[in-house]
Amino acid sequence: MQRRLAILLSLSLLFSLSLSPISGQETVQQTDFWACPREFAGQELHVFNWTTYIAEDTISNFEELCDVQVVYDTYSSDTEILDWLQAGNRGYDIVVPTDSTVYLLIAENLLQPLNFDHLPNLANITETLKSPPYDPGNRYTVPYQWGTIGIGYNRTRVGKDITSWNDLFTYTGPVAWLEDDRAMLGVALRLLGFDPNTDQ
């Protein structure tokens, strides 16, 4: 694995996509889902990911199964990953930005196009998640996580049901907010009665 900045939006997805065995190639070890090509043994993989995005034993398991060393760095906001990469801290094989950050990384030539010959399992990704607006044709990315934003609370401590964003905004106790400008702007737009996806 060359030390280059390529984006595969997931350490676990890398295992299932780019480490699938090539026909006739010997492997170090194989599971029911993927295998490590022997040529990867002894090499180093550099990953830049959000905090708490993988299990505690994911890296150690992967290192043992594939006989590689993983250098795993984490960040906690879109601003942090942009500042870090724009400052010249490159050399990652995998980075895991949000969709809105991908636009900027592509525009600033901070990502390297993917080699689809190494991603046979891309064919198994649902069609609705392929070729997103921020990366038509998946030239630089593959999807890792998809989800939505909601409200979590302790009903006993709050003392009532929280059934709307307005309930959350008017609650007078301690509240923890998601550190994501785009997501929070969407919540504010929804609260004010506007489309959170508007570009106006």
Shape: globular
Q: Report the count of strand segments.
A: 5
Largest sheet, strands/sense/barrel: 3 strands, parallel
Cα-to-Cα separation, first versus last residue: 43 Å
Determine the strand fraction and express it as a percent band.
5-15%
Count of helical segments?
7
Low-confidence stretches: 1-28
Average pLDDT number:
80
Approximate helicity band: 25-40%
What sequence of helices (H) and strands (E) makes up the elements? HEEEHEHEHHHH
Structural class: alpha/beta
Q: Strand order across the biggest sheet?
A: 4-3-5
Kindly provide the radius of gyration, computed on alpha-carbon positions and rounded to a whole number of angstroms. 20 Å
Structure description:
The chain has 200 residues and is α/β, with parallel strands linked by helices. The protein is 28% helix and 12% strand. It has seven helices and five strands; from the N terminus they run αβββαβαβαααα. The chain has helices at residues 11-17, 58-66, 78-86, 99-107, 155-158, 165-170, 181-191; strands at 27-30, 35-37, 44-50, 69-75, 94-95. The strands form two sheets. The chain has a three-stranded parallel sheet with strand order 4-3-5. β1 and β2 (35-37) form a beta hairpin. The chain is globular, with a radius of gyration of 20 Å. The N and C termini lie far apart (43 Å).
Give a brief rundown of this model.
By secondary structure, the protein is of the alpha/beta class. The chain has helices spanning 11-17, 58-66, 78-86, 99-107, 155-158, 165-170, 181-191; strands at residues 27-30, 35-37, 44-50, 69-75, 94-95.
